[in-house]
Predict the 3D structure of the following.
Amino acid sequence: MGTTQLETVPEPKYWHLKTVLSEALDSEFAVGEILPNERELAARFGVARATLRQALEQLELEGRLQRRRGVGTTVAPPRMGVAVGSAHGTWPGAVGDAWQPADCAPALPPVGVARILGIHSDDQVHTVRRTRVSQGQPVATELLYVPMSSVAELTGMDAPSGAARARVVLRELARLDLEGQDRAVELGSARADDAKALDRLPGAPVLVVTTRFFAEGHTAAVSVATYRADTCRLTFGDSGGVEIHHGPERHAS
């Protein structure tokens, strides 16, 4: 990979640099290999470090690179295939659900979630935290917001704490007749707690899947799941479900 001057390229410099770097990842770098530092790369390509950062950020967003704590920027492996939730007839925690309950506690929901649930922002909800691991790697974390009214039988009960309480909330929620659900996907940046759970740096690109579960004519629960954008590629199937598929095979020498 020789030095490439980009002064006369009509497209944005960082975009052309991204293309050059992407080709180099295929031909010169192996999966997991650490890239040279920013100063070396910027000098090699004759660009400002700000331009280089834009190109690296775009490659990270596309799943070609990973930023790892205490390691640096490495070549990412191909995206792994994991089913997210193509079945519209099941509650979270149903048989076959790949998520693992981690914790549950009463808390005030974010204002946006309270609005979706149709409750006041000062009304506490059961907040269930779940995690998902695939091929030994954390790929997603989820916050499931369940209004007290959706699991009224838990009111006043001496429910267990932590993961045990989460399982109780999920079990009670499943007693409702699920009428349907809808999903929305958007690109976001990892918050500090999500970044820690996903072994990412704060601000790393993530895919946020928000799911509303309907029962008894209203929104009975809201799930906000955060997926690693470098690991997951989400597509919508004919059933309306969301799936994660392997990305194109990449070979490095």
Q: What stands out?
A: DSSP finds six helices and eleven strands in the chain. The longest helix spans residues 13-28. Confidence is low (pLDDT under 50) at residues 246-253.
